Amino acid sequence: MTVTLLGRRFPAAVAYAVALGAVLILLVITVVAALVQTETASAVHQQVRTSIERRSHYRLVLQLMTDAETGQRGYLLTGNDAYLEPYRAAEPRIALELDQLRAEPQTTADANRLRELISSKFAELQHTIDLRAQGQQSAALAIVRANSGKQVMDDIRDLSEGAQARETKVLNDALAAADRASATLRFVILFACLLIIGIGALLVFLVRRAVDELRESRDAARVAHQRFVEQVAQREQAEEKVRQMQKLEAVGQLTGGVAHDFNNMLAVIISALQLAKRRIERDQTDAGTFVDAAIDGARRAAQLTSRLLAFARRTPLNPSVIDANRVLSDMTELLRRTLGEQIEVETVLGGGVWRVNVDRHELEQAILNISVNARDAMPDGGKLT
Asked: Quick check: 258 pLDDT over 80?
């Protein structure tokens, strides 16, 4: 089938494939753009989080330093050690915050500078505290009133606030980049949607043209379909006949197998009764063994009938995990009685034989059938191993 486009005819499959390929390419471009935007947003998010954490470190360092200075002033004025708790807690926490800042290359220089200033400030605070502890409150307050540490504190405040301002600028730049990426993604999605709509309209046009051409061949297709239906009906009739023949063949095979098994059972019963009769005629008292063999054979024939009925009812067998050597050992005496005195039975068990999952009665029946067939093959007697 072909379609007409721009005055030229193209194979319909080619035209549809090109259109669908173009749609697929546009979808891939859109997905890639979305993934890029996602990665950008993730990077911006990480950058924002890192910037906020750095600002928090700077702000916390300044706050702790202010608390330490406030605690020092309170102690100098009152001499109460409780005022020194913020001072004592500030130094290790400030060291931890500075370690966090030093771990990042962007803030290592600021952290090192802050460490120097804070060490200098803590030295001054500790000196005044020591003077107050020694009873020299006036000397300690004189150092405070001289504002000798004010410049250091101002440097710490300027450095911290300047770093926070830089982090704010980094944050704003990252958000602006994210906004630009989002605008680009929206443009790509809009452009792709417009192209997909255009390609969809073209496909609708091509499909309508193709439908017009298909209508011309509809009648021929109906005729072909009717012919195909007739052929299918004929083939189903032929298959039904084959199935009936297979059923008849299966019934014949089943009848033959049942007759063979019954023949074996009857052979066992007849042989056992004949041997028992001979023992009775000779006035021997051990004929009961052969009578037991005949009864066992009759019981097995009854079991065969039960299994045949089970097959007719489609009842499943009853397999179990058994030792084949054990089954054969248990059957040895039965085989000797069944096969008669002319057949010498020797049992040789296999070494390392695996256990099998099988119906025990079926396995015994199979062994018995093989043994009876072997006896029939040795009419003058012999040895069965």
From this structure: no
